Structure formats: C-alpha cells, structure tokens
Amino acid sequence: MPRPLGELEDAVMTRVWQWNRPVTVREVLEDLQQERSIAYTTVMTVMDNLHQKGWVRREAEGRAYRYTAVSTRAAYSAALMNEAWSTSDNPAAALVAFFGMMSAEQREALRDAVRVVQYDDESVTEAPSEPRAEAPAEPPAEPSPEPPVPPEAEDESAEPPSPPGR
Q1: Distance (Å) of CA 18 to CA 65, 74, 162
Q2: How many CB atoms lie within 10 A of CB 23?
Q3: In 10 A of CB 28, how many CB atoms?
C-alpha cells in the first residue's frame, strides 16, 4: 500500500524517474541545488530512506551507490489512486467526484486510457467466461458539465470532497 511521497522525496524521485538511469546522490544533489540550498547528507538520507521503503534499488559503485527506480511514476500514481478509491465507502461516488475535478485534457487522457484497455480486452484470444455488454464505439464528444451522481451519493449533509493536498 503506497504512501504519498513527501515533498523532498518527490523531488528526488522526480529526477530518478525523469533521468531513467542509475543516479548518484551527487547528481541529484547538484540538480536540486539549482532550485534550493540543500546539503549532501540530506539528499543521501532521503535516497537511503527511499531505498528502505522500496522505491529505489541501489548498487555499490566504489564508495558510492547508484540508485534506480523500482517502478515508474505512472505506476506510483496509479497505486495511489487505486488505494484512495478502494478505501472509499462509496467507490462510485468517489469516481464521480474525481471525474468532476478533471480538466478537459485529463478527461481526454481518461478516454484514451479506456480505449487502450478496451483494445487490450478485445485482443485477448480466450473468450470471456460470461458474456459482457459491449462498450459504445465512441464516448460522447463533450461530457456534461455536471457528472451524474449515483443516488447513494446524493447526501445533502455530506461536504463536497476537497482535492488532495500537495
């Protein structure tokens, strides 16, 4: 179960993910120092903590280590979204609220992702054990401004969800 990364952990992991190669503490330090004043030992501690938490693996190279991401940023984000969604007492309402927070670009990315998943499902050679309803060939061109709310989500006393803090 992933926990959100702290601010400095995220800054370090962003570099590890973007560079997509084994990195040293010194390389990360030099890049971080372009944005803020930070000590070598601080970066070393953060990278060691990320290793202990299983976010990076490391290999010794002389007296230093080279760190490599264990998974991608996309996999990390997906795990966080899945964790939040699966712990909801009303997953349908949580999804509706989440979709309502999305920008037009994010909704288009969601449509693209659904198409990829549908394509992957169709390319499986085994027939499904139970018949499934066919998905529409194309989603509507523009979603309605207000997504539909499942009846169980219409609770007047509930406060609207607030976006996660960063």
Answers
A1: 18, 12, 29
A2: 22
A3: 24
Question: What is the per-residue DSSP string for the chain?
Answer: ---PPPHHHHHHHHHHHHHTS-B-HHHHHHHHTTTS---HHHHHHHHHHHHHHTSEEEEEETTEEEEEESS-HHHHHHHHHHHHHHT-S-HHHHHHHHHHH--HHHHHHHHHHHHHHHHHHHT-SSPPSS--PPPPSS--SS--SS----GGG--TTSPPP-PPP-
**pLDDT tens, 104-136?**
999 999 999 999 988 877 766 555 554 444 444
Handedness of CA 28, 29, 32, 33 (dihedral sign): negative
Q: For tokens 């997509």, name the residue.
A: 20
Record the tokens describing residue 37, joined without a space: 């004043």
CA–CA dist 162, 94 (Å, integer)? 11
**Tokens encoding 135:** 């998905």
Chunked into runs of 10 residues, the chain (166 residues) has average pLDDT values of 84 96 97 96 96 94 95 91 88 90 94 87 58 44 44 44 45
